[in-house]
Design goal:
Blueprint lengths: L2 H13 L8 E13 L8 E6 L8 E4 L3 E8 L8 E3 L23 E7 L4 E6 L4 H4 L6 E6 L8 E10 L14 H5 L7 E4 L6 E4 L4 E8 L8 E3 L4 E6 L2 E8 L10 E7 L8 E6 L6 E8 L31 E9 L5 E5 L10 E4 L4 E7 L5 E5 L5 E5 L2 E2 L8 E4 L4 E6 L5 E7 L2 H5 L3 E7 L1
Parallel strand pairs: 1-4, 3-8, 9-12, 11-18, 19-22, 21-29
Antiparallel strand pairs: 1-2, 4-6, 5-7, 7-8, 9-10, 12-16, 13-17, 14-15, 14-16, 17-18, 19-20, 22-27, 23-26, 23-28, 24-25, 24-27, 28-29
The protein binds CU-O-CU linkage and copper (II) ion (CU).
The site of copper (II) ion has 6 residues, from loops.
Length: 441
Amino acid sequence: MNTSKMIMLILTLGLLGYASAYAEQSIHLQAKEVYHQFPFFDTKTPVWSYNGQIPGPLIRGKVGTTMVIDFSNRLKEPSSIHWHGLRIENAMDGVPGVTQDPVEPGENFRYRLKLEDAGTFWYHPHFNSSEQLERGLKGVFIVEESERQPWSQDWVWLMDDWLLQKDGTIYPHFNTGRDLMHDGRWGNVPTINGKFRPEYTAKPGERIRLRLINGANARIFSPHIKGLSATVIAVDGRPVTKFFTLDKFVLSPGNRIDLDVRIPEQVGGKTFTVEDRFTRRAFQLASIKVIPSEAVKPPDITPPTATDFIPAQVFKNIKVEKTWDLNAIRGGKFGIGWTMNQRLWPDADKVVYQLGTPQKIIFKNSSSRLHPMHIHGVFFRVLERNGIEAIEQFTRDTVLVGPRESVTIGFVPEHSGIWLTHCHIQEHAEAGMMTTIKVKK
Ligand code: C2O
Ligand code: CU
């Protein structure tokens, strides 16, 4: 191409605006039953999958572009797909009965997502969720930054746990009294990307972006990499405002963190284990094997920080207008219901907010169970825990509210529509712990 042609091309692209803003990518996701081989069983396990994969396909789009997803439901029951954490048009949020009709067996639905935030997100059904997620329907959705950093590797670990029976099949009773009286359904086989204790390999000197996503129905993870230091660079799909070391970070269902893991130059031949330390008995999740080779030069990376994203000061003089009391009652479709202000979904205590007006909400846990509370379509800031100022260097879309704990959050509704708000322990949500925040223009 000669220079004048080149200039013409640049000018035209300039006139069209940012070229990639027009880019559109499309993919298919088909929900269907397939067989998955877990280790230590002779037979394969029937699971529900997207495109036959456990977990579902890793979706990668670029910020500023549009992703079109043609979903087809080949299950024997209705379904939908929700794009956890993504700020998108409300009609694409994937919540049957709120933003769309359920997608019936044999039917299709086209999701069109404008990707406005770069980061680590995920997707899962929002229909009969305690069963559909548990049977395997979930996947990771990465929105790439417009400026690529030279990470040595970009690892995506979807953390999950499965409740398998002796014959390798999925324990077929859902929303049991046991699940509901406790913290939901905890499994007996922890997996990373559907594999039990997978081994990952790295070279000495590498700097790895490790994305952790808790896709379990109920289990809470607190990951720890023995012998390596890791820095948290993003939480729930947003860069942090200040980096901090991974130390006892609690990833409840729905939460994500992005880590900057540095492999020292002298550790060739060593293997590091990644453990969960949330429960009293630590167990191995995965391992990182450093091959005994010459060290590579650590890449030069400056992960972005979100220095100005809804600063805590915005909420200084805002009154709390809504407190949601979280507790259990007798009743509901399973005999035990989980309530927000004594009410069960869909007869919920809902709120209506004005677009652009800062809001404060208190999640007050009057029970002795765990409730990771999630709000669709926003990033919020934790302001207080039990009335004491909380300083978190990041925003979230899901926050764990511990037994008898009360958590005050602040956020600015920036997208109109009806946004679901619920406990991300799927069994608690299914038993009523859901409501909506309606944002009016
Ligand atoms: Cu992952 Cu309604 O949420
Ligand atoms: Cu809960």
